[in-house]
Each structure stands twice: as C-alpha cells, then as structure tokens.
Write a structure and sequence with these properties.
- This protein is an alpha/beta fold.
- The chain contains 11 helices and 12 strands.
- Helices cover 39% and strands 20% of the residues.
- A 6-stranded parallel β-sheet has the order 9-8-10-11-7-12, sandwiched between helices. Strands 1-2-4-3 form a 4-stranded antiparallel β-sheet.
- α9 links the parallel β10 and β11.
- α3 packs across α4, α5 runs parallel beside α6 and α9 crosses α10.
Length: 331
C-alpha cells in the first residue's frame, strides 16, 4: 500500500512524499528508463525524485496532489496484478482531472477500477470516467448507444463485452455489423466473392476480436457461426435472439436502415450501436439514422446513451489533441 505524506506547502507550491510497501513493483511503476515518471512530470508540470521506495513530488500544489493520486492509482493496479503501459498512464492522468457530478471532487483514481471485462487474452479496465459509465451500461442495459470520436474505445469495449458474454455462455452468438459506406474515397471494383468485397469495411471489428480471443478460437467460432461478421444489409428479415449484436459506424446508416436494425432485437439479446455523429459519410447531409434514433429513443427504460468526448480518447495522446483541433475541447 502506498503511504502519503505532505512534506511542505507554501502558497501555490507543494512538495509531497509517497512511500511504497513493495519495492519489487517499482520497476513496473516507473516504466522502462523511468518513462512513466517522465510522462507524469511532462503532463502535470511536476518534478519527481526517487529515493529507494519513496518518491518526492514537487510543483504546483494541485499538480503534485494529482501526481500523487496517479502514482498511487497505478501502484494499486500493479498490486491487483494488472499491467500498466503508456496508455494506462495517460488514461489515469486524464481521469485525475475529471470532476464528479457535483463538479467539486475529482474521480478517485487512487483505487483500482471496480468494473472490468475479462476475455481469454486480457482483463480490460476503464481508462476514462466515461468508459466506466459505458462498461456499466454494457453489463446492465439492453440497448446502448455509444457516441463520440474515434479512439475512445466505443467499439473495442463493446466487442470485449460481447466476447466475455460469449465465452461465459450468457449469449450464444456474437454478431458484428457495419454499413458498407466509403469514407470519402471511391474504392471502385473489388475482386473476389462477397466476403472478399465486404471484409475491408469490417476490418476494425476483426482487429478487436483478435485482440480479445486467441486467433484459432476466432476462426473456429466464425466457422461454426458463433461469431458472425456481416454488412448491415445482411440483417434484414432476421430476428436475433440469444445474441450480442454490435453495429459499428452507425452514423452512416439511413433512418430506414437504423429502424430495420433496431427491430432485429430478440429474446435474451443485447444490442450496442456505436458511431460518431460528426463523421457522417452519407451522400445526403443530415440523413443519419443514428442521430434520428438517439433523438427518438434516449431516455426509454432499458436504453442507455453514453457520449464520449475528445478527453476520452485513449489512443496516443496526440490523437486527442487532433480531435480537439478539429472539433474543439468540448467535442
């Protein structure tokens, strides 16, 4: 357990000391060549010095407190057997600045997250406060709309939750779909059979699958029909029971397509609709079925809507800055 002590504080300057009980974890905490400490120093504008199993943090009083909470949170994750990497460090730093609903007390990042998704290859924990709410909705609600920019984990977490439920037997099938709409380019004629033609559009779904299941299991379950990856047009006329159904890039559906998809919902199923309302590639502006569906269905019992912003981007930090540059800090 990390022990915290305030050494000195004068005006808006502070110096804190944190003591860690298990020195064997400090290598993983600091990162290779102390890269985790350097990331915290650069992001929060503090100075961190290691003395045995103690860390001294100096800088702005609020920043030193945030740095202490970040380090304690990362250490507690290691204590629970969770791995940390550069993405986890960035995520905990971001979460340390997020207010709670009352706008006063920061999210408590000093404790390991209480919600997680277990798959065959890894245990996934939330990397932002919005991801916590999203993961809770994935486990609780029947229909979930996940809205926001790329890199926030909308599709990845939905696939992970679906895989988790598939391997535990709570659903029989995993169905992944997206509309085959070109994103601003003209791909022209694609050779091969139907699978060859639509696979390029569905590649991000395959990537998430292979990250959560061993490759041989992905191939076997696809061959058996337990996992189905198909363009949206293939959903017409079906009722999908005992299934976890994910629609990706949903901003590129028409109103009629979205209604068709949502009404495929069957007994003991869960449906997740992921999309970025600001990245519509449809030829007719303002015709997105995603915006229409959220407007009609938000607030209905059993239906959750989770909105991500630029601050929730969990890819490389520069991706979040790119999103902010294009869409503003409140994107």
């Amino acid at each position: 357990m990390a022990k915290k002590q305030v050494q000195a504080e004068a005006g808006d300057r502070g110096r804190l000391e944190v003591t860690f009980d298990k020195p064997q974890l400090l290598g993983a905490l600091f990162g290779e060549y102390d890269q985790n400490l350097v990331a915290i120093e650069n992001r929060l504008g503090v100075y961190i010095a290691a003395r045995g199993n103690k860390l001294q943090i100096e800088g702005d009083a609020e920043a030193t407190a945030r740095a202490r909470d970040v380090l304690t949170g990362l250490y507690n994750r290691l204590m629970k057997g969770q791995e940390i990497d550069g993405g986890a460090v960035e995520a905990v730093i971001a979460m340390s600045a997020e207010p709670t609903l009352d706008g006063i007390i920061r999210t408590d990042v000093s404790q390991p997250p209480t919600v997680m998704i277990r798959t065959r290859k890894k245990t996934i924990v939330p990397r932002s406060a919005t991801q916590i709410r999203y993961m809770e909705a994935l486990a609780r609600d029947q229909v979930i709309f996940a809205l926001g920019p790329a890199g926030t984990g909308k599709t990845y977490l939905a696939v992970a939750q679906a895989v988790s439920q598939l391997i535990t037997g709570s659903v029989d099938r995993l169905i992944l779909s997206r509309p085959a709409v070109e994103a601003g380019e003209r791909l022209g004629f694609l050779p091969g059979d139907m699978k060859d033609k639509v696979d390029p559009y569905l590649r991000p779904l395959y990537d998430a699958l292979y990250d959560t299941l061993p490759a041989e299991q992905v191939e076997r379950r696809i061959a058996s029909g337990e996992i189905e990856i198909a363009p949206l047009a293939f959903m017409r006329g079906r009722t999908l029971a005992n299934a976890f159904i994910i629609l990706d890039e949903a901003q590129n559906t028409s109103t009629a397509q979205m209604k068709m998809f949502l009404t495929r919902f069957g007994e003991n199923s869960r449906m997740v609709v992921c999309g970025d309302p600001k990245q519509v590639d449809l030829p007719v502006p303002g015709a997105s079925g995603l915006a229409d569906a959220v407007g009609k269905l938000e607030g209905i019992d059993g239906i959750a809507t989770v909105r991500f912003g630029a601050s929730d981007v969990v890819r490389h930090p520069i991706v979040g800055r790119i999103v902010e540059a294009y869409e503003g800090k409140d994107a």
